[in-house]
Q: What sequence folds into this?
């Protein structure tokens, strides 16, 4: 399975995925490309160091659909089947979502559906929550929305700052994202084996 990863910044989740593919923890897959919408994303150098092709596709005042069409074309050109958003800070257009049905996933640092959007940890602490965590979910056209694949919880401690809470959650994010990708790859392989069985059956009858 060819995986494409979209980033906008630091890229630590992207690194976790690339390393898990390289070590075989995520089996029989390849990260075909890492695409950033920001030329100065720190994650780009980390992908290059790991020998993964990188592309910068900036929005540069273009309409969302036009920008997304260029990204979709780059992903399709490389045979990408699964798209992982890893700190990618843009909402996808309906066209992008339809181009990879059930095959775009995202990670968000809260227990969705609670706290979608930005400044999550500030809001979690201000609300006096006792627990938070991260969610890997399928992507639809809405912000941080779509069927949940898996979640991991962490406690919110009395003296937490947004930074300490964010760091505690990020530790969980990397393993959660790897586990979620393994889960959906297993499902995709089962689906394609099923299609082969059905195709073989209909070809014989
Ligand atoms: C992570 O907290 C992720 O959940 C959110 O953006 C942050 C990206 O961090 N969507 P990184 O770029 O993967 O280090």
A:
């Amino acid at each position: 399975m060819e995986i494409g990863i979209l980033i906008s910044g630091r890229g630590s989740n992207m690194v976790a995925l690339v390393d898990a593919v390289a070590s075989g923890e995520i089996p029989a897959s390849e990260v075909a490309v890492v695409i950033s919408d920001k030329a100065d994303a720190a994650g780009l150098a980390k992908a290059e160091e790991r020998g993964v092709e990188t592309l910068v596709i900036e929005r540069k005042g273009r309409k969302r659909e036009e920008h997304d069409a260029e990204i979709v074309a780059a992903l399709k050109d490389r045979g990408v089947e699964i798209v992982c958003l890893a700190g990618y800070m843009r909402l996808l257009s309906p066209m992008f979502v339809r181009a990879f049905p059930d095959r775009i996933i995202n990670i968000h640092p809260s227990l969705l559906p609670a706290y979608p959007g930005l400044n999550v940890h500030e809001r979690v602490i201000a609300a006096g929550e006792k627990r938070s965590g991260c969610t890997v979910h399928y992507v639809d056209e809405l912000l941080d929305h779509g069927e949940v694949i898996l979640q991991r919880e962490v406690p919110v401690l009395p003296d937490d700052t947004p930074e300490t809470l964010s760091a505690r959650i990020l530790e969980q994010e990397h393993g959660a994202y790897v586990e979620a990708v393994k889960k959906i790859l297993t499902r995709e392989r089962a689906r394609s084996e099923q299609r082969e069985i059905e195709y073989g059956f209909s070809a014989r009858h």
